[in-house]
Protein 1
Amino acid sequence: MTAITHIYNYTVRCPHYKENEQVATWLNHIEVNQSCEIALDRITKWHNLSGTKSFELDDFVVRKADNEEAYFAMQSSRLKHDGHALVTFKIFLDNCCQDASPNQIMEHLIDDYQQRIAKVE
């Protein structure tokens, strides 16, 4: 049996304001952490509120929450040396991000995740 050895939680929020004269974009509001508690909380919540399948991208099934303007996905990846990575994604969209594409955001996040686990292997 292998254990989960690496956890990555991505959260993207659409900005409501400009910071330091930068253009307000979701690219400036990506959070990545490695909290087991956040991953377990998300898995538990999503198990009970599975949402509606929105699209698939690179073997990730992305769902739209039924009760909020949010998209989410999760997956595990087998790593060399008997390790496993668990990744969760949550994208918050609202009225100020009408031009944001969940597909484009997920492409960016999946690429970042794949780069991170490639360094582990």
Protein 2
Amino acid sequence: MPVILVANPKGGVGKSTLASNLAGFLAHRGHAVMLGDIDRQQSSARWLAQRPAALPAIRGWELASAEQLRTPKGVSHAVLDTPAGLHGKKLAQALKVADRVLVPLQPSLFDIQATYDFVRELQDAARDRDGSAGRPEIGLVAMRVREGTLSQQQLHQFIEQLKLPLLAELRDTQNYVQLAARGLTLWDIAPGRVARDLAQWHGLCAWLERPVKDGKD
């Protein structure tokens, strides 16, 4: 079962927005999806509670204890929304189950600095993971980007240093906010209403649909 971890230690970078729309995409592709929330704020869990029953189902997970994650039976794909401040032992535990890690970041100096340190820790932790499980694939998603700005240029320069794929560059729009308030994703409404946003997801969606590699390096 592919497990996608959405992680960045800085709060407010768009983890829950990204995680919920990832789950929505996978659900609309016909997968049995779980959106697991391990953030104390429970943003994704609250979003899930607002989701209309008539839409493609996205399940929450069963929590056996504060330290044990349990996926419901029949789930084929899992998206995990993580808390701010994810470091050390908690990060290592999350990586034990992750096949892919998506790191959302915004084009600001504070986000860039926090993300740089986290990516280095993430890569070190991934190398320390049990070799039989392979290392998770890591990708970046730029959030709330305003095209043609200096901050966008600085973000691109920073990403070049990380040597990780930029899978999507999502614009700063109220579409995500308005949809989230109703438990919806981009894939739950008429495509024409969010055509520009859907186009920005093409690269990320293609990455998600690739088979998970065995023995990643």
Protein 3
Amino acid sequence: MQAPHVEGGWQTETMPELPEVQAIADYVDGRAAGLPIRRVDVASLAVLKTADPPYSALAGRIVDRVWRIGKYLIVTTTDPAVGGVDEIHLIIHLSRAGWLRWSDHLSQTPPRPGGKGPIALRVHCGLPGEGFDVTEAGTQKRLAVWITRDPATVDRINTLGPDVLGLSRDELAAVFADTAGRIKNVLTDQRTVAGVGNAYSDEILHTAKLSPFASARSLDDDQLTRLHGAIGEVLTGAIARLEGQEVAKLKGEKRSGLRVHARTGMPCPVCGDTVREVSFADRSFQYCPTCQTGGRVLADRRMSRLLK
């Protein structure tokens, strides 16, 4: 896995968001759909958030499809004896530092439980050597895996807002009219709209020419139209850019397509102004004063809890 890129003292955002999860789903679906799962190795029991069905129940089943709900990766499996009437879903939330690595040369030796390596889960499917590892870098372990017969029984999925790409302009306007808070917070609150994280919210707001601190409820009709158009432009553009890319290259492709996020101190590609940053305890966001705030530089409220 590629080392994190550091820009201006902050790690560039590589958290998988909607475009990356969609690209991972498409990539793995194209390789695993129709293949049998031979076994599942769990190196970190802490990532498993469910116990019934057990992870061992996936062995012998067929991968039906790989898809997503918001930023959650869903591997749907079926019993070859009865087909689609008996689905079991492997649900993966990669969180901030998780990733998935497909390989045609997986080791047949199970990863050591409780080991210090990045591997949390290994799924063997198809021929010996085929399958994927679910990994997590760093010390903050937030990767989560559920095995369930119905994704709706997972609380985190059950409380997700509508998929952000599925909203019409009027539906988006209705969501924002009912939601208090700054627009940056609202866009990244998965209970309000699902799919957007820190990086793409910066890109969307830059494209829409909106301040991250603007009130969601105060947006006028023109601003809502720009926001809806920017969501489609940024996310569908990223999906198109990532289409067909190997999973190992997705992080680099994401970084290459960012115009303001993690570009502190660099010129805005639209107007040439310097991209600025607002920093918090564990993350930061970037914006262009000329494009988004009428030239005003926002206060850098480091250690603030405003944008969790």
Protein 4
Amino acid sequence: MALLSDQFEFTRPQILTLTAGVLQLAFGWFDVFGLDPDYHVIQVGVGALGVAMAWRHDLARMYGLLLLLSFGTLAFSLDDVTTEGFLEVRTALIGLVITLARPAKAAPK
């Protein structure tokens, strides 16, 4: 496992989940892409959920699986190409990366 300090151990999925959550919060808070205001609420919610679920390894994996399934389903139900559709595909791919990321090997002592 990747050690950040003597008390806290973060695995790669946890770091990816925390990073994705913070970025979702930032993109939801600031109008970066000029999206529908309702989509900003979704981004803030998904970001807050990511930050909350990043503190345990199993919850981080579950977050990745939730992103993959929910946003992947939305992406496959698209009729036309929009900015929101691109962000749905991007978020589903982030979920795939979090789900498939392997924890780091234990550091040699």
